[in-house]
Every structure is written in C-alpha cells, then in structure tokens.
C-alpha cells in the first residue's frame, strides 16, 4: 500500500507504546507521511533513538513524552493534554499501541497485582488518556474529523489469557461505545485494529517456543494504521478490523 508523503501534513498525532514494536513503526510511517508525532512511552532512550531516526528521514520533528502508563494517574493525563495544547495548539489523532502481556495462566493462579497492572496499562490508561484529550480532538474536528485507533488482539477469548485478553475485550467495547457517542456529530472516527501475529517482544513473551522468523515484521502492519488515519477509512467507524482485511 503506497500513499503520498503529504497525506498527514499539518496533523498532530499522539502514539502510545512508541518506543518499540508496532508503535515505533506506526510513528515512523506517520512522520514520513507528514504528521508531527508525539511519542509516548516509558523507555526514554528508545524514544530518543526513534526521534533521531525520524529526524534523519527529514520528517517533521517529533515530540517526546516519557510516561509510565502503569503508574500514571488521571492528573498525569490531564497535564499531558494541557502540555500538548500549549505546545501544538491542536491534536488530530491518538493511536493506542502500548500494551503489556501480564500473566498467562489459569484464573485460579492469576496474581492479583499483575492482573490489576495489566488492566491499568491496557484498558484504564487508554480510557484516561482518551478522555483527557477529547476536548483537543473535538476542537480540531471542526475542520476535519479526528481519529482514535485502539489496538486489539483476536486471542482475547482463549483460555489462560487472563487480564490481557479481558483488557482487549474491554478495549473493543470502549471503541464501540465511543463510536456510538460520536455517531451523530461525525466529528471523530474511532477504530479498533487487530494487527495479527507480528515479530514483537510481546509475541515472543507469549509464545517463547515459537520461532518468530516466519512472522511479518511490525513495519508490515504500519500501512493498516496509516489507512485508518485517512478519510478513506471513515466507513469503518466503530468497527474492529484486522490488518489483513486492509492490506
């Protein structure tokens, strides 16, 4: 899938989990196509490396926002939204790529602390972040529709997937709730994307015995995220779609 490098010109887009895997590739793709990307992750050295890569590509200079979503509070996200408004005056989109696997085990053996931490990163944090940024998104949506992309996983209903699977089911529900809330106004488009199995650190932790060499690299699914950031995807508003159905 090819696209004009000016496709996302003048757009400011926040990407979580940007320090590696799919988030990093989405950030590079968006920046290459003209967006100013705000890179959010807890791993500052990896963010700085990604910053250098994007600048070396002659893309718009990105912004770094180091934040550990496991411990961040509602106030942290409110402050983040205020800083984005102060620095850029706008926000056109959010892409939620941050995720943690948690513990894969029978329910009876689930560690309660890890369960809560996994739900915090995978479900509560995306809710708090999105809620804090909605006023900015709605303000920009007076010009063109804003967009929110959540990342899901088809493994959510499998046995032993614990809080990770539960959180992804919750993300899909949150996506559909938001989509219905924005249905009448049509000013913000909301999507849930399942990238499928890719060569990421999370996949390696979930399947330690599996050789990941035959899997697509994270860069292979970045075009699906790029497509959802364009007007061509508006008919998918509120839907949970797989990257394979787009690419």
Task: Characterize the structure shown.
This is Oxidoreductase, short-chain dehydrogenase/reductase family. Keywords: Oxidoreductase. Belongs to the short-chain dehydrogenases/reductases (SDR) family. InterPro entries: NAD(P)-bd_dom_sf, SDR_fam. GO terms for molecular function: oxidoreductase activity, acting on NAD(P)H, oxygen as acceptor. It is built from 8 helices and 7 strands. The protein is globular and about 50 Å long. It has one domain (12-158, 188-246): Rossmann fold, CATH 3.40.50.720. It has a 7-stranded parallel beta sheet with strand order 3-2-1-4-5-6-7, with helices on both faces. With 247 residues, the protein is an alpha/beta fold.
Summarize the structure.
The chain is of the alpha/beta class and 247 residues long. Helices cover 43% and strands 14% of the residues.
């Amino acid at each position: 899938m090819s696209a004009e490098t000016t496709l996302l010109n003048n757009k400011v887009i926040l990407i979580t989990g940007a320090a590696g895997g799919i988030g990093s590739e989405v950030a590079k793709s968006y920046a290459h196509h003209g967006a100013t990307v705000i890179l959010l992750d807890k791993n500052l050295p990896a963010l700085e490396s990604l910053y250098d890569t994007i600048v070396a590509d002659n893309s718009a200079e990105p912004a770094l926002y180091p934040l550990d979503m496991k411990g961040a509070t509602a106030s942290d996200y409110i402050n983040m939204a205020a800083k984005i408004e102060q620095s850029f005056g706008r926000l056109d989109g959010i892409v939620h790529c941050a995720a943690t696997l948690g513990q894969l085990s029978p329910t009876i053996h689930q560690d309660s602390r890890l369960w809560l931490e996994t739900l915090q990163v995978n479900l509560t944090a995306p809710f708090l972040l999105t809620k804090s940024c909605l006023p900015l998104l709605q303000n920009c949506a007076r010009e063109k529709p804003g967009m929110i992309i959540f990342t899901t996983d088809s493994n959510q209903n499998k046995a032993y997937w614990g809080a990770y699977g539960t959180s992804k089911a919750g993300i899909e529900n949150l996506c559909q709730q938001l989509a219905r809330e924005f249905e009448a106004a049509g000013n913000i488009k909301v999507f849930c994307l399942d990238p499928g199995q890719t060569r990421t650190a999370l996949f390696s932790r979930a399947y330690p015995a599996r050789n990941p060499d035959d899997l697509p690299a994270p860069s292979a699914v970045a075009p699906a995220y790029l497509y959802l950031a364009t007007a061509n995807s508006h008919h998918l508003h509120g839907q949970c779609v797989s990257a394979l159905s787009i690419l």
